[in-house]
Amino acid sequence: MGMKVAKFGGSSLADAAQFRKVKEILLMDADRRIVVPSAPGKRSSTDIKVTDLFYECNRLAAGGKEMAECFDTIRARFHSIADELRLSADLDAHLDEIYRNIQLGAGADYAASRGEYLNGILLADYLGWDFIDPQQGIFFDAEGRLDSDRTQAELGALLRNHPHAVVPGFYGCDTHGNVKTFSRGGSDITGAIVARAVNAEMYENWTDVSGCLMADPHIVRNPEPIRYVTYRELRELSYMGASVLHEDAIFPVRIAGIPTNIRNTNHPEEPGTLIGYEAEDYESEHMITGIAGHKDFAIINVEKAMMNSELGFGRRLLLALEEQGISFEHMPSGIDTMCVVVHQDAIEGKKERLMQRIHELCSPDSVEIHSGLALIATVGRGMVRSKGTSARLFNALMKAGINVRLIDQGSSELNIIVGVDNLDFENAVRAIYRAFVVKEGRW
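Above: the chain's sequence. Below: its structure in token form.
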């Protein structure tokens, strides 16, 4: 029998009713033996996340201000869950200790992690499972980076002694024994780390959506779900704006070859999206896997005759960007031209100095910076086996009256990136979706 690690997001554990759903899901499958909870999320659009309340308490305490009223909101939130589920955990003892520690200056990481900590205690009580504090098994090094080797060894050994366990997400232990958190959304990372440590058969990430969609539902009406996606495809889509999993959560399970299943807590009957390493056994009816993109990029266009024969030209151009602390996104080039695509915000206040350094280092014939560019990635492992993919994409954009300002395709043929004006972004996404996904008469 294999093991499944199930991580539940904040919306999945926002109140007692959601706790009941989570318990039912866990007990439906005997292989689900380790659960990673987030802190309680919003119960409505006007609600405040518990983690944000803890951050506010820490801010008030650090400024020498009274935090009792803010903390009472947290206290009431957890009591509403514990009381409705009739739990036996001594919740007030934990809350009182946390209050004292924040007042004494335990710090932002400690405060921010307590939502997951308390939710873990309540969920362990509700399930009758063992509570495992991540401070005992997830470790960071002196630079604040995850100590993967130590964590893999010690967390795996720790969990082997617990047939059923609750491991709160989002935090671990620094080199001084203090709480250290991941970045926001880090419970996804904890879930993946735990799955790798126990060599799980599957990592299930339960949230409030039924997996990944082929396009942004704010742009395309009722986009098709993605039933299977490889880790490489998900990385491309996540980078270009598709947001379901925390990006860093991909790597621990990818390294271990463990598939991830994104599921919906409110609709557990739906299969969600399966993310795997290979794709041979999973064919899609569509040539592409998904479409994603971002607005507000800029193109730095550098021209120089005989550039292709000038040794070190590209290195010097990138050095000019590095000196200004600017990272680049893409770098399409021609024989006598080189384009560097950067985030528009990254060059604000730096344009004059950047252009000056490019002239000093590269002696170009001309340098121009054009802003207001949107990038759209059309991603799919099926494109490499299909003839006419590029023609189909550009024909769709032409018919929609959209001018393409940039084209970039890697040698892997996993994606095609096009640049269009910001104003054309939504129409371009819809045009590509119609061309590759929508069947005759369905749009």
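Residues 214 and 224 are 6 Å apart (CA to CA).
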